[in-house]
Structures are given as structure tokens and as C-alpha cells.
What we know:
By secondary structure, this protein is α+β, with helices and mostly antiparallel strands. It is built from five helices and 14 strands.
Amino acid sequence: xxxxxxxxxxxxxxxxxxxxxxxxxxxxxxxxxxxxxxxxxxxxxxxxxxxxxxxxxxxxxxxxxxxxxxxxxxxxxxxxxxxxxxxxxxxxxxxxxxxxxxxxxxxxxxxxxxxxxxxxxxxxxxxxxxxxxxxxxxxxxxxxxxxxxxxxxxxxxxxxxxxxxxxxxxxxxxxxxxxxxxxxxxxxxxxxxxxxxxxxxxxxxxxxxxxxxxxxxxxxxxxxxxxxxxxxxxxxxxxxxxxxxxxxxxxxxxxxxxxxxxxxxxxxxxxxxxxxxxxxxxxxxxx
Length: 287
Ligand SMILES: O=C(O)CCC(=O)C(=O)O
């Protein structure tokens, strides 16, 4: 497979929605062969996870939520997707960036019936980069109903405040070393509100989705709430994270999650640098 034209153009309305709301759902942007490729990749990845892999939740019935990140170096199917699918072009057009670098992949895999709900959070305050031109392409590899899909507070990416984030390190029940013990309250004046208590008041959105659809969201948007699956439904999600024009490397003194600062330094990247090197490769530029 090679980089091809988008199956349809990303419309001006979709670009405007992404800027205004910080999130947009794009139906049927990836053909079935890309979904098959990612499913194959995920099977290989599950068989050989990275040292970063965590079970975020395991309940009394043994149902789990598995998470891992930056597996693309070891999973050829993910490499194929990153460099040759339309994901980078979609990200570039929505962010209106001249150039797009790949940041990392992350998978979120719930076994059938998992009741685990992703806590509401923003991504960028955890990351080892900062900037407004960032996005995630969230792709379910199985059908998912709006009630179980990732949900968003439209417009919340535009606030400047860093909100007090949940600590994902404490979610792991396997007593692996925690990834992040940081206390975001040291830098964040405001707690994340209880969005699940009154989703309508926050204008929360989510969508019924099929494999081939994707949701693209800005990394500062408040998102969460996915999960609570029906007994026979699983949820396998592949995400790719992309960096646009204003992004700089940012080594934070609060915990980063996932914390790629060591591997970034090994690649010669310093705080304040633009993304680059084989770790954060440029994948797309505006034609
Ligand atoms: O799919 C999920 O439940 C969580 C996804 C998420 O938080 C992310 O991609 O940043």
C-alpha cells in the first residue's frame, strides 16, 4: 500500500469544526485493508507488548483494559500505517499545518463486557511536547456505539488553564512500576469538573462508529468516558498522535505520561527543539 489521495477531501466545514470544537468525526476515511492491517498488527503487538504496556483495569470476572504505546518500532503493520496511510494527511489538513511529524501510537483494548471507563483528561499536559497543533486519530477496529465510544467536551481545547489531571500511573493493578506519580495539583489550579455527572451541561459529544471511521481530536480537549461495554462487545482502538507547526519538545518537571524524555534525549532532542530525528519523523508536508 502507498500514500494515496484521500477517499474524499477533508471539507472546509470539517476543518472549521476541528478548529472550533477541537474534535471532528470523519466517516469512512480508511479502507478495510487498513483496518485488517491494524488488526493484524495489534495481534502481533499483544503477543509481544513493550515494557510500557499496562493493564489499566482488571475486574473480578477477569475483564481487562490493556494499554500500550510507541510500539511502532517493533510492529511492521503499524509502520506501514504511519508512513503510508492517510492519517498524516488528515492530521495536517485539520491542523492546517505545513508539516506533520509522527509522535507515537497508543492502543486501548477492552475485553468483552469491560466496564472500565477512561477518566476525563487532557493529553498535552502529560506529554513530552507542547503546542496547540497536536492531534490524535482515534480509530475503533470494531463497531462501537456512541454510548461506549470516546467522548469529548467541544471547545475545551481553547482554554489556557492546565487542569489537575488524574494520575494514570495508579490505575495499574499489577504493581508494575508506576509511570507517573506526579502531582498535577502543584501546577494546576483547577480540577477537572465532574463531567459524567451532567454530560449534557458540558455539551458532551460522541458518535456511533464503524471500522474505517475516525475521530480526530486536539490534545488539549477534555475527553474520556469510553467503555461500559455490553457483555459480548469488545473495544479495540488504535490511535496515532501527530505534531504540527507550533510544537516543541517539552521536558516537564511534573510527571510525563507516556514519558519519552529519555529516548528523546538519546536521539539528541533537547527541551525547546522542534520534533525531528528517526524518533519523531516528518511524515507529511503540505503539497
Ligand atoms: O480509547 C480510550 O478509552 C482512551 C483514548 C485516549 O484517552 C486517548 O487516545 O488519548
